[in-house]
Design a protein that fits this description.
10 strands, 2 helices, globular, 5-stranded mixed sheet, Immunoglobulin-like, 5-stranded antiparallel sheet, mainly beta
């Protein structure tokens, strides 16, 4: 029982990861990078077909993707110590809806959890 408690305490002090994968896209935004914003700070970018890991502390974090003046909706995640949350991003809608979405501040990119959580 004591070793289980120590193991849980150790996990609480471990950093957590937010893994963001971007689907490979043939047309829309193919050559453009998506900026990753965590808790209001730009922490990196994901290119077409790329996955990146971002280290965060345990707790609640707000994640968003930006591209120019638009991007995704905010996604709030709660992470335990040592936990990995996997997110996926890709252009929202079709090429036909692009002219309409172009003027939306949060309608250009889809950002969602994949459900594939893990322990780092």
């Amino acid at each position: 029982m004591g070793s289980l408690i120590r193991q849980n305490e150790l996990m609480d002090t471990q950093p957590s990861l937010i893994r963001i994968s971007r689907k490979l896209e043939r047309w829309r935004d193919q050559g453009r990078k998506y900026k990753v914003v965590i808790d209001g700070q730009i922490v990196g970018a994901v290119h077409n077909g790329e996955s990146r890991d971002f280290t965060v502390t345990k707790g609640e974090h707000c994640v968003r993707i930006r591209i120019d003046w638009s991007g995704s909706r905010d996604l709030v995640l709660a992470l335990d110590g040592g936990q990995v949350k996997t997110l996926m991003c890709n252009p929202k809608g079709s090429a036909w809806s692009s002219p309409i979405r172009m003027f939306s501040r949060r309608g250009w990119v889809d950002l969602y959890e994949t459900g594939a959580d893990d322990v780092a």
